[in-house]
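Minutes, project check-in
Item: structure for the 388-residue chain
Input as provided by the requester:
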Amino acid sequence: MAGSALLGQPPATQEDVDIIRGFYEVQGMPAIQAGDAMPIIPVLAPPGAPHDSRSGTLITAMCIVIPLVFIITGTRLSLRCFRRDLRWGLDDWVIILGVIGVFGWTGLVIGIAKDGGGGKHMWDLTYHELNIFISLNGIGQPVFYVALGLIKISITLFNRRLTGLTSRKWMIFHNTMLVLLVCYILAAIFANIFSCNPAALNFKLSVLGQSKFPPKCVDNNHVTLSLSIFHIVFDFALLSVPIIVLYQMQMSVPKKIRICILFSVGSISAIGSLVRQKQMMIKHPDMTYQYTYVEKWVIVDMFFAITAASLPILNSLLPSHWGSRPNSNLTPITPISASNAPWHGHVGAPFKLESTSTVHEPNFDGVAFHSDDILNDAEKGLAKESPN
């Protein structure tokens, strides 16, 4: 807003007055009544304080992330649509919702950097910019957790397709994870939106300053810490699934390494979430400048989560001989169905391949691992356990 004063200076507009009142309400200080001497938000600039800004860097990073996420997810969905050996599933619908959430979050970050002073030093901010920073950041928190929750649900659904036919225990594990993730998303929405009563007070200092009644708010730091801990636990739980599956399978070492590399991308997201939480716990007086360091790790967390969700499908783009033994008689992978299943007509029959001319791959539905040793891997590995 034109005319808004810099932080640390006397208010220049009525909105500045409301923001200051809201700020002191958040700090738990007595409400400022009309006619009282108006304090100012203390912002101490050190001697020789710099006046650089990282806002442009933040906007550039978001403009790079958006097309990368679009390309990765678009390629994944195109493969699922047009490849005969890959089938569209519920995990694809959910990843679309997750990507929409990612785009919404990146838009909010751009808004924070452009209009909310994100990346600027506190002593260079106006009261109006601080108000926008708090407002958009308050909206961005639930959007971030919902987007990541949807990505994790997509990965869980994919893991269920991967191991669902091997054991009832795996199905129980995946279904439990899905329930927990849905509860996590709902908790993130309600905890961030309704942490203050009335809810509008949670998003704007100016609205809080205009309120005639003292707000009733829970400690948002505890809420954020709790959500972050669950977020990290879910990361490592999902990462453990392919590791356990690969450990139980019998396959060539090069192929194991190849698949491990694909699934280990998710570990980068988990590391990003750990570092992000550590950065958030640092109480920095120059919080709008520190914001860029936190968002850097949020980008790592979110981007590699999206990548990890799509890489097993993108694996089908790699040359078929990578990590495989040479074989000129390889044929495309044929998706299994009730009509072409080797045990068709035999209820409860164990998994047994009847022909080596076509590779059936029930436990890797939607993933094309082109290798002649899939035949042996499926027969000796995952197929040891009959469907329950």
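Outcome recorded: The chain is about 60% helix and 0% strand.
No further action items on this chain.
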